[in-house]
């Protein structure tokens, strides 16, 4: 139980990669605070599974893109658990479209959810970690940050910014025992990537060195490694879990 006694806050944890991360952390001994926007039934199912592992779990509903929500959630976690050892910024959305056809709302919502929300969440969590001189922060980026596809300009910009933010936070927080890294998944078998996989499977498979899609648990394993106490020396890095997609 590598994470015994620790508390992890996982945003966007009701399905897909977020769900897998929350469950993996719970299996390793972590109590879990889980945020979700609207998928109440799915979030409750995740919570039930985590509770079945003997871990404490609390659900927090809210739209993380609302600037007031990150601090409100962190206040709730502090009241319920008293600490946050691990933060996983996983919540994300896509609004894929060629830039010439994107609305301002498409651009703003993707940036608000995928970049500004993680920044505000780190801002809210960092004081708790600084006081204890310990913390692990993992931001979920995407292969689109370095190898975007057509129609992904808003998403690629947000995730590229998230990777730069990851490195900036590593510089700011390392002296207080807080390590900050990112994991950049490729095409993972989730609901979010259904459209990408259905419309461009031949092209994706051509670019993949590993000729298959990964399951969310593959990404979760990478996150657990970076988020664990055994990681004492890796910070400011972006770990690509993409089957070699960025090599093409």
Summarize the SSE layout with pairings.
Layout: E1 7-10, H1 16-27, E2 31-36, H2 40-52, E3 57-61, H3 69-81, E4 86-89, H4 104-132, E5 135-140, H5 153-173, E6 178-185, H6 194-207, H7 216-227, E7 238-241
Parallel strand pairs: 1-2, 1-4, 2-3, 4-5, 5-6, 6-7
Helix pairs in contact: 1-2, 1-7, 3-4, 4-5
Structural features:
248 residues; Rossmann fold; alpha/beta; 7-stranded parallel sheet
CATH class: Alpha Beta
The number of helical segments is 7
Give the overall silhouette.
globular
Name the helix and strand elements from N-terminus to C-terminus, one letter apiece: EHEHEHEHEHEHHE
Low-confidence stretches: none
Q: Please, what is the CATH homologous superfamily?
A: NAD(P)-binding Rossmann-like Domain
What is the radius of gyration? 17 Å
Instruction: Name the helicity range.
Output: 40-55%
Tell me the number of structural domains. 1
Q: How does this structure look, described?
A:
The protein has 248 residues and is an alpha/beta fold. The protein has seven helices and seven strands. It has helices at residues 16-27, 40-52, 69-81, 104-132, 153-173, 194-207, 216-227; strands at residues 7-10, 31-36, 57-61, 86-89, 135-140, 178-185, 238-241. Strands 3-2-1-4-5-6-7 form a seven-stranded parallel beta sheet, with helices on both faces. This is 3-oxoacyl-ACP reductase FabG. Residues 6-177 form the Ketoreductase domain. Belongs to the short-chain dehydrogenases/reductases (SDR) family.
